[in-house]
Amino acid sequence: MYKIEAATKLADRVYEYWIRAPQVAQHARAGQFVILRLHEAGERIPLTISAVRGDAVRVIFMTVGKTTEELATLRAGDSIKDVVGPLGKPSEIENYGTCCVIGGGVGIASTPLIARELKEAGNHVIGIIGARSADLLILEDEMKEICDDLYITTDDGSKGVHGFAADVLKKLLGEQKIDRVWIIGPAIMMKVTSGVTVPYGVKTYVSLNPIMVDGTGMCGSCRVTVAGETKFACVDGPEFDAHQVDFVELMQRQRIYTGQEKVSLERFAEHRCRCGEGGHHHE
Amino acid sequence: MSGLRSTGAGAAKGATTMSDRPADIRVKDFREVDCGLSADEAIAEAERCLQCKKPLCVRGCPVGIDIPAFVREVAEGNFPAAARALKEQNMLPAICGRVCPQETQCEGVCILGNKETSIRIGAIERFVADWERGNGPELPEVAKPTGKRVAVVGSGPAGLTAAAELARAGHAVTIFESLHEAGGVLTYGIPAFRLPKDVVRAELDQVLALGVRLKKNHLVGRSVSVDELLGYDAVFLATGAGLPAFMGIPGENLNGVYSANEFLTRVNLMHAEAFPEFDTPVLHGARVAVIGGGNVAMDSARVARRLGAKVSLIYRRGEEEMPARRAEVGHAKEEGIEFYTCTNPTRILGEQCCVTGIECVKMSLCGVDASGRRSPEPIEGSEFILDVDMVIQAIGTSPNPLLVSLIPGLERGRRGNVAVDKNGRTSIPHVYAGGDIATGAATVIEAMGSAKRAAAAIGAMLKEE
Ligand SMILES: Cc1cc2nc3c(=O)[nH]c(=O)nc-3n(C[C@H](O)[C@H](O)[C@H](O)COP(=O)(O)OP(=O)(O)OC[C@H]3O[C@@H](n4cnc5c(N)ncnc54)[C@H](O)[C@@H]3O)c2cc1C
Ligand SMILES: Cc1cc2nc3c(=O)[nH]c(=O)nc-3n(C[C@H](O)[C@H](O)[C@H](O)COP(=O)(O)OP(=O)(O)OC[C@H]3O[C@@H](n4cnc5c(N)ncnc54)[C@H](O)[C@@H]3O)c2cc1C
Ligand code: SF4
Ligand code: SF4
Ligand code: FES
After folding, report:
1. Looking at CB atoms within 10 Å, which of A2, A19, B323, B409 has the fewest?
2. Rounded CA gap, A192 and A202, in Å?
3. Cβ of B242 under 8 Å from any chain A Cβ?
4. Which value does ipTM take for this structure?
């Protein structure tokens, strides 16, 4: 069992948990993730490692379906049945010169570790974090502290630049040399934003989020097409060269279980109503 | 558990299907197909054994069970002694009794096979193991602690066997397993209707009861560094051949195309058949094509059948060439799986992301008459389309590259397997390997045999130090 040491709500539908998992914390690097399973009947879901403190790792998640909704009902002191990690290849951190780390929505969760390791490797680090509106923006203070420059964007203009991270990136690329770009967010946001760097020939990494089961390269559920080849995101990635990724296929494969996911979520919501909001343990 | 009930009659004839539940009933659930022998049937079968002075059967058993000895105890109704004799060489008898390809191992060489029918060694073994499980298992003796620490990576049959042997010799053994359940393919691959999960659990618990530590959720190479691993006095790599192959034909990444590993894992490990009671989903195709002719293909087809599909099995050679066990081919047919032999898929068709069909071509030079294993050739113009909404590829797996590619200086063979000598020694002095990671995808009993040899070599090495 893996104990939740702290649980905080960061924004509407977005939560931050510190989970005690020494074997993960001791080895975690930027770009890696964990897979967790809440209980005997649970699904295995991947979440990015967002920070490490002692024997605990931080995950930040958005409630989008049954498992994340159920996870959100847990509190500090509760436990998660299984946590395995760190999974995936670490980000390719080197001293490149100037790097730009971009997070969109809950994808911002992945940015601090990457930005911090880039900084430690000697890079000048520019951060861009974007959300639909100001109240959904997370980790602003943390990113401000790590990055040399931080830009904020909101779709509705309620904070920072009115618009998308892609707009800021385009402007920056016109003004200065950027050597590497990381983009983490929803698939469509990564597709659009990485398109901006193509004409500049800047190597751009995206962290792909296909549906996973084992996370160890054994099932192929997470397969993605990169440069025309099939890759398993859990072991060959999750970070890949953005300009080579087949995003359309990724988005298509993310929808495989839409029907069942709805059934599962509705059943959970109904169950929760019957048991009262407070009763937070599944069973 | 299905218990030890049997439909009776005919066990001694060696017909493997006499104790099977009827096909029309068993396809509606995931309970065990073969009900096993009753005590009387087991005794009657054991009494047929000639107690050969030079028993051929033992040579056919990769772990060297003293078959005449345990069979004699059964014939005398002395089941505890039979169990003791079995476990002297094999800590997983209930598993082996069910899934060993006995027809090509011990039973294949039993002297009685020439005249009448071989002794049903596997069925008797299973009976004894099941009897013992129901009557409180006895633990073998464990030697006093040696103070040596051994790391075993992977908890499949190879890892469990090596762990048991080394623990019995007094070494402190830790098994690392990346999944949340131990057992390897026994847990995530072979379906419950062939190998009930409580059977796996019980034999696993016996291995742990020898004092073996099991660390689940530990992916070695990630959660445990290579340096930490190599810090043990000895290491046994048993990470299996879990990397699924895809054919590389168009349409393979459409929604509804699975590797057998994914499909079986969703059901066996994650219990997707019980969705939404269990949270993990799996697609329920109405018409499913399974590609392949091995045990994995049969298992996938029969699981899909139990999820309600009409299933077509596509195999590029003839039925005789199928590597699956005969009994499993028979079971699949009884359960209504349609066989397309001498047939090869050429592309998977889809509309708006989902599978709508599979195009196949007939193959020549693929049947029994074809000399040797000549390469089948596609017959031009013989293409046809099967209307299916789901495809499962069961065309093989290769050794898990993750950990072995991270260990510097570890020599590998041509197929990505870890190169070993006959005692499981690798190119690194205190690192050994066995099971599918060394041989490529093989069988449970061969994995166990190689693990036993490696454990013996590790024991000898640790003694010398
Ligand atoms: C490497 C990786 C890192 C991730 N990091 C984060 C993170 O830090 N924060 C965060 O909020 N989300 C993250 N995700 C996405 C997160 O795993 C999904 O939101 C979660 O699995 C949804 O589960 P659910 O039961 O709540 O929703 P469901 O209703 O089951 O699914 C909602 C959507 O989530 C996706 N999804 C469902 N099951 C899985 C699965 N087993 N594996 C992957 N995706 C799935 C599907 O596209 C689906 O349509 C990450 C995904 C990957 C692959
Ligand atoms: C569907 C199916 C049906 C089969 N049917 C039969 C049958 O009827 N009869 C028969 O004899 N054989 C059968 N086989 C083959 C048989 O199961 C295998 O040959 C056998 O399981 C190999 O054992 P193993 O211990 O080498 O590896 P596995 O059983 O594959 O176990 C390897 C374990 O190592 C773990 N692991 C991998 N990498 C790491 C790591 N880095 N860190 C920690 N853990 C790790 C894996 O999660 C896994 O649990 C079947 C195989 C399949 C897939
Ligand atoms: S372990 Fe397998 S090969 Fe050995 S006696 Fe038992 S069934 Fe036969
Ligand atoms: S070869 Fe057959 S008859 Fe002879 S001892 Fe072995 S099982 Fe008995
Ligand atoms: S999640 Fe199974 S191979 Fe990647």
Report:
1. B409
2. 15
3. yes
4. 0.95
* Contacts (Cβ under 8 Å, ≥6 apart) of B215: B174, B175, B176, B177
Q: Which residue has the tokens 């299984």?
A: A82
* Tokens linked to A156: 């509705």
Interface of A with B (CB under 8 A): 23-24, 27, 32, 37, 41-44, 66-67, 81-87, 213-214, 216-221, 223, 225, 230, 235, 249, 252-253, 255-257, 260-261, 263-264, 267
Query: DSSP for A120-145?
Result: HTT-EEEEEEEESSGGG---HHHHHH
Structure tokens at B211: 């004092």
- Residue B310, token pair as written in the block: 């009409």
E strands, chain A, where? 2-11, 14-20, 33-37, 45-48, 51-53, 56-62, 79-80, 82-87, 98-104, 124-131, 149-154, 161-162, 180-184, 203-207, 223-226, 229-232, 239-241
- Smallest-distance ligand from the CA of A211: 1
In this structure, are residues A103 and A36 in contact, taking their beta carbons and an 8 Å threshold? no
Ligand 2, pocket-test mutation among B207, B218, B239, most atoms within 8 A of CB: B239
- Partners of B344 in beta bridges: B361
Q: Which amino acid is at B305?
A: R
pLDDT in tens, chain A (283 residues): 999 999 999 999 999 999 999 999 999 999 999 999 999 999 999 999 999 999 999 999 999 999 999 999 999 999 999 999 999 999 999 999 999 999 999 999 999 999 999 999 999 999 999 999 999 999 999 999 999 999 999 999 999 999 999 999 999 999 999 999 999 999 999 999 999 999 999 999 999 999 999 999 999 999 999 999 999 999 999 999 999 999 999 999 999 999 999 999 999 988 877 765 544 443 3
Q: Is the CB of B324 under 6 A from ligand 2?
A: no
Q: Which two tokens stand for residue B179?
A: 């999944």
Instruction: Report the relative pairing of strands A239-241 and B149-153 from DSSP bridges.
Output: unpaired
DSSP A144-184: HHH-SEEEEEETTSSSSEES-HHHHHHHHHHHS---EEEEE
Q: Give the integer Cα–Cα distance in Å for A260 and B382.
A: 38
